[in-house]
Amino acid sequence: MSPLPQQSIAVVYGTRPEMIKLAPLVELLGRDARLIHTGQHFDAELSANIAADIGLPDAHHRVEIGGKSRASQIGSALIGIESHLAEASAVIVQGDTNSSLAGAIAANSLEIPLFHVEAGLRSFDRRMPEEHNRVLIDHLADMCWAPTDGNVKNLLNEGVDSERIEQTGNPIIEAMTRMLPGPDEQRARCDRLGLGGESFVLATIHRPENVDSPSRLRDILQALSEISLPVVLPLHPRTVASIVTHGLESTIAGIKTIPAVGYRDFLSLLARCVLAVSDSGGIQEEVSVLKIPLIVVRRSTERPEVLGTFATLLSDPGQIPIEAEKIIDSREQLMARLHDLGSPFGDGHASERMHLSLRRFLDSTSTG
User: Fold this and answer.
1) In angstroms, what CA-CA distances link 298 with 224, 251, 313?
2) What pLDDT digit, counting tens, does each position of 230-243 carry?
3) In which domain, by residue range, is 90 found?
């Protein structure tokens, strides 16, 4: 395939997971990439510091939408993104964030080809704002880059033309391969975070369904404090705000809380923990690479590929310590079983496939 002439490929992102998963593709795009950062995550460890940590170049354009309501974020991002797309040959968005939806609508309104990284994920739970976002983006996209067979089937079942779908795998695999510290560095990073050589459980809680309800957040934090091993909880800004607003400081007394950490530190924690407890979507993918058991604290998940193997879905916080003790007690046998399982999210070449797909598409449109 002949090299593309220099293009202006707009890559829109606003959150930490988007930055992590897009970084390998941005590297392949090289000088063609034009980065638009919406500022949806404006905390340093979730935005500025993470960019440096993963080697993502500085954004060419910034649109500050952090701290606003969902509707305001989408509206403000749409206006801001659209103003930077005049020369764009294509727009790339990732996942199901407000930033991604705004980027998708902006591309559609200007009739610029849209490419969706991580297409076809479905929780079938309409209570999740992210579910609405991802469905809308997929149906606007000119090319849906789907990680798994199940994601492809979801798109076909919704009537998305097969010519607009390509199964690529998930770029989290290569992102983690690039970023995961070796064992000695993992140990050193955990030591710097005050963990020493002790066994621990890693928890992350930040989704609106868990932190916006004071009673549910209280129940989750109480459940974490009842686990027999020490629980390490890096605090997301949204979680901190809810704890302070609702006067829940006493509920974290039995938990080792630390500030939000960079991605290499986080991967070091995840790689060395006995068990993860989280409401994060990305962690469901990451544990399948690191072979770590996970309790997903949510009503539903858009990543069912890990259920019954790496992950257990629990909507009732009261069940968290019960399930955690089962996993801790059977850890040796469980880890041996997980060790032999491959990740359902691909082989570490997703970004290469997406880059080739983009080149083919632009080649075909330029010659057609």
Assistant:
1) 15, 20, 7
2) 999 999 888 999 99
3) 9-171+348-367
